Amino acid sequence: MEMSSEFEWDGVLAAYGEIAIKSDVVRRRFVRKLMSNIATGLKSLGAEFKIRHKWSRIIINTPFVGEALSLVSRIFGVVYASPFKLVSLSELKDFIKSSSPKLLENAESFAVRVRRTGTHPFTSLDLERELGAIVKEETNLKVSLDNPDKTIFVEVRDDECYIFMDKFRGPGGLPLGTAGKVICLISGGIDSPVAAWLMMRRGCSIMPLFAYFPRGGDESDLKRFIEVIKILKKWHIGEEMPVYIYKHEHNLIAFRKIALKYTCILCRRMMYRVANELAKRTGAKAIVTGENLAQVASQTLYNLRVIDQASELPVLRPMIGFNKEESIRLAKKIGTYEASCMRVTSGCTPIKGCWARPPKPVTKAELEEVLELESKLNIDDLLNRSVESIRQLPDSYFKAS
Ligand code: ATP
Ligand code: MG
After folding, report:
1. What residues flank ion ligand 2 with Cβ within 5 A?
2. Which of 48, 298, 350, 363 is most buried, by CB atoms within 10 Å?
3. Going by DSSP bridges, is the β-strand pair 287-288/315-316 parallel, antiparallel, or unpaired?
């Protein structure tokens, strides 16, 4: 993250967006959670800091400005963050005079933007002009109101003046942990980590669940999953994120024997059932997947309806309407893309795609047919084996390597 010059800032100021339009009670609760998420993140950095809420801004005083900035831009609810300097109104002009050469280093043109609240004998525009003239005198730079190389923002609130330059975009959305818990079925492919991130951005605390079905000792999917989780954990600030894995292989072996072209359908239904069981134990209120309409054979409307029927809880699919390139763009932004595309092989057989996938998976599944097939299997028994195999992966798996 590149900041303007080597300037000594007082800390980081964070602005939130959507939270501001909530009712009073909700807003207070959301702001409290936003602040506590930021504080949790800063504590984990071992940074010294003080945090307060003032004038719809979160103000963090800390000497670790770069670290705080990079943390705050991963906090859901934050729309932008800026390093700031706080001076009193009586010091403002002197400060601008002495600091503008440094603040505007390498710029050819500049603008000053003032926002003001409180009672003052001048307007924002008056102050903009006055400060602009001082800067021009000190630096000899061109004023450009339309397209300045750099802008000095000044927010005057009564006697306090916050000065900042660069606005670093945050993810926006709502504070993590304000919208309840969800189980995310995450494969380590491109879509499901993005789906999980989108739910986090809407305030959900997530619990990833991975269906483990290696064949011939190929752990590629598991490795990708672990790498992807490491990245998601960097965003999951302020709530625990337990990560679960369960054994799915015996299910696929059983399905393939009797239901070749229906294997994918039965597989998904089983994943949902296991996810529902885990949700019951953990208090999660929905299941999240990376399914995307018509991207692969198993994701037609017919099939989605048939697999949904196996889930008691709502199945949320934030990626349903995404185009492939949109998923990729977002995955790159989040940081999971590389891990999702990682080519890892172990054991003897590098496996392309899912080994259990039939040559021609059904695209128009019929619920009656699926129920008929399942009645020939001991689904409860298969499910029990999977549920009994659920275990939480220790944190040591996700330490930065
Ligand atoms: P992804 O990119 O997320 O793998 P996809 O478009 O490749 O999705 P599928 O592989 O058919 O689609 O999987 C559909 C969804 O099922 C995934 O998005 C994910 O939510 C879930 N899923 C698939 N494989 C696993 C797995 N091994 N463990 C947990 N969930 C899985
Ligand atoms: Mg996949």
Report:
1. 187, 189
2. 298
3. parallel
CA 292 – ligand 1 centroid, Å: 10
User: Which residues have CB under 8 Å from 238's CB, separation 6+?
Assistant: 33, 36, 37, 38, 40, 41, 75, 175, 176, 177
CB 360 within 8 Å of CB 248: no
Q: Which domains, ranges and CATH numbers included, belong to the chain?
A: 11-169 (3.30.2130.30), 181-398 (3.40.50.620)
Q: Which strand (E) or helix (H) includes residue 39?
A: helix 24-45
Cβ proximity of 9 and 65 under 8 Å: yes
- Sole residue written with tokens 């296991």: 274
Q: Which atom of ligand 1 is nearest to the CA of 209?
A: 29
For the record, the structure tokens of 185 come out as 């079925």
Which residues are CB-neighbours of 381 under 8 A, at least 6 positions away? none
d(CA 53, CA 62): 15
Ligand nearest to the CA of 243: 1
Per-residue pLDDT of the chain (401 residues; tens, 9 = 90+): 555 556 899 999 999 988 888 889 999 999 999 999 999 999 998 889 999 998 889 999 999 999 999 999 999 999 999 999 999 999 999 999 999 999 999 999 999 999 999 999 999 999 999 999 999 999 999 999 999 999 999 999 999 999 999 899 999 999 999 999 999 999 989 999 999 999 999 999 999 999 999 977 778 889 999 999 999 999 999 999 999 999 999 999 999 998 789 999 999 999 999 999 999 999 999 999 999 998 777 789 999 999 999 999 999 999 999 999 999 999 999 999 988 887 765 444 444 678 888 888 999 999 999 999 999 999 999 999 999 999 999 999 998 65
CA 189 to ligand 2 centroid distance, Å: 5
**Angle at the Cα of 395 from the Cα atoms of 181 and 281, rounded to 5 degrees:** 35
**Mutation probe of ligand 1 site: the residue of 184, 187, 270, 327 with most atoms within 8 A of C-beta:** 187
Is the distance from CB of 228 to CB of 186 less than 8 angstroms?
yes
The secondary structure of residue 18, as a DSSP letter, is G
pTM to 2 decimals?
A: 0.93
One-letter amino acid identity for 263? T
